[in-house]
Amino acid sequence: MDIAFIFAIQIIYAVAVLTLISLGLALVFGMMRIINLAHGEFITLGG
Fold first, then answer.
1. Cα(16)–Cα(29) distance, rounded to whole angstroms?
2. What whole-number distance in Å separates Cα of residue 42 and Cα of residue 22?
């Protein structure tokens, strides 16, 4: 496969992961009105 195509797919995956993380933080902040920094711990555990 073309290296540019593989690179583009990896960028799309990275953007999707960061989008899910930011949506999770926004959802928690929207419901509780408190910034929950423990969200990052769960992301780290998933890795």
1. 20
2. 13
> What's the confidence (pLDDT) of residue 1?
76
Lookup result for tokens 């769960």: 42
Q: Identify the residue whose tokens are 């711990």.
A: 41
State the amino acid at position 9 in one-letter form: I
Q: What is the pTM of this model?
A: 0.68
- Distance (Å, whole) CA 25 – CA 37: 9
Residue in this structure with the two tokens 């195509």, named with its chain if needed: 5
Residue 42's CB is within 10 A of a number of other CB atoms, namely 11
pLDDT of residue 47: 65
Q: Average pLDDT, stretch 8-36?
A: 90
